[in-house]
Amino acid sequence: MALLEKVDKNIEARAWQGEIPIQSRYTCGLAGEKFFREIMENGRFAGTHCAECEYTYVPPTIYCERCFAKLDEWVEVGPEGTVQSFTVLLVAPDGTPLEEPDILALIQLDGADSVLVHRLGKVGLDELAIGMRVKAVFKPKKEREGSILDIVHFVPVNA
Amino acid sequence: MGLRKVAVVGAGMTKFVRRAQETGKELAYEAAKMALDSCELTLDDVDGVALGTAPDAFDGVHMKGEYLSDGAGAWRKPFMRSYVGGGTGVFAPIQGWYHVASGLFDVCLVVCEEKMSSCQPHPQGAFLTIFDHTTERPLGPNLLWIFALEMNRYMQTYGLQKKDIALVSVKNKRNAADHPCALLGDPNITVEDVLKSEVLAWPVQRLDVSPVTDGAVALVLAAENVAKRITDKPVWIKGVGWSLDTAYWTNRDLYYPKYVEYAARMAYEMAGIREPRKEIHIVEPYDPFDYKELHHLEGLLLADKGEAPRLTAEGVTARTGNMPVCPSGGLLGVGNPIAAAGLMKVAEIFWQLRGEAGKRQVPGKPITGLAQAWGDLMQVGTVIILGIGG
């Protein structure tokens, strides 16, 4: 009986190989279009502001999830911000050690109420602190392609 | 049963398009906001949100329910996503109904969204994985050819010809020419156009089937005491029903959708309807393929078995006929963003019963209408009956 068979190695289990053969072609949306163009063309962060809720969304949304108002007031935020939390990745998803630690952080850009997740760079592990001031580093303009990775990382303001 | 009366009091929908520039969230927002605005309610008035959306793989976002929640107006509210494949668009308002009927909420926002254009190279790739991975998937099943098997069986059972069935596609695409949100309305399409279109999987041809679509639809449901404050034209949910047949789709006799009959009988009983053909004035059965409208009319007991093609040929199901069927233009004409398409049908009944369907308005002041959807592994039927007065 299959349930009682002891299989010591995964490759010994009898299996049917299969895959789900689909790819996704995502739209960045009405708000995303403006956000990524602003990064790509001007190296700036565009957010939307809800006057009713006094809340600024970055990445922007075309509506306020709190009051459902349509948002058309655009504001520039950042490029500096404050680290709200961070983590240091030492192991890759496949279990192998990373050659260089990868640092991910929650960053509240100046002027924003929402919080952006991105990488930190050019910072020693012993310098990391919640509350530290950081600023965005964008790729050279000709290399930008309208992606969140057009932002290379955030680095300490005083670096 | 101690259930409260529940009314539909508002509705909204986006255009149905081949590929929307908006994200799924943005589509959901546009429909939800329009529905709330239509009955002059705000998010503060909404007690809970029921979301319907089909496979995660369409939008390419796992936990798509949560992903869509802010656009659906669910911030810090009780939020439920339901999913019964293609039947979702009519199941979501049923879920909204029991949240209000039970007394739990006074106002429930129902939102259905689908963004199928994200799925490449074609959403059929996602459908491949709904089948058994060992016994069926190696054969590369997709919905076109499994429904071709069903259509062929239906045609053979009653001696039908392709031209009998193509009339449905012609009727619906012509009806859709009057729908401002429609993707495939065509006032001049003919049976010959359908019969000359590309054969995809015999007997299914290109114009027998609805297209891949992006879109969203929303309804506002309210308990009786609230509904009467909001509007003098509440449209009551009179009955609901749903049923699931065996998941071994090969084991059903595909000529007749028994699960639709069970769902319909449940809804008729709740609505106190004994003679559906006299008491249902307007019908929006699920029509992703032209033969399915016929199949479903028979399952809904609105036509004798094998007789729905004759009713169509005689004009009974035309917008000006005795029993208008898919006056919206249906999935074949308006488009088929799966869950949103089902809810579009419920919205159409709402607009028709209130006399707000514009150029699509059926004559004769209908007071009772039925919407139905179908899905999962082609074995779920979902039915809702709406009515005014009483």
In a few lines, what is going on in this structure?
Chain A has one helix spanning 29-42, and strands at 23-24, 45-50, 55-57, 74-77, 80-91, 97-109, 116-120, 133-138, 151-156.
Task: Tally the helices of chain A.
Answer: 1
Which CATH architecture of chain B?
A: 3-Layer(aba) Sandwich
- Distance from N terminus to C terminus of chain A (CA atoms, Å) equals 64 Å
Q: N-to-C terminal Cα separation of chain B, in Å?
A: 18 Å
Q: What is the fold named in CATH at topology level of chain B?
A: Peroxisomal Thiolase, Chain A, domain 1
**Biggest sheet record of chain A:** 5 strands, antiparallel
Name the largest protein-protein interface in this structure: A-B, 24 and 33 residues
**Structure class of chain B:** alpha/beta
Q: Average pLDDT across residues of chain B? A: 95
* Gyration radius over CA of chain A: 21 Å
pLDDT under 50 segments of chain A (min length 5)? Answer: none
What strand order characterises the main sheet of chain B?
Answer: 3-2-4-8-1-9-12-11-10
Number of helices of chain B: 15
Fraction in helix of chain A: under 10%
Topology of chain A as a string of helices (H) and strands (E): EHEEEEEEEE
Report the principal-axis shape of chain B: globular
Total number of distinct structural domains of chain B: 1
**Chain-averaged pLDDT of chain A:** 92
What is the H/E order of chain B?
A: EHEHHEHEEHHHHEEEHEHHEHHHHEE
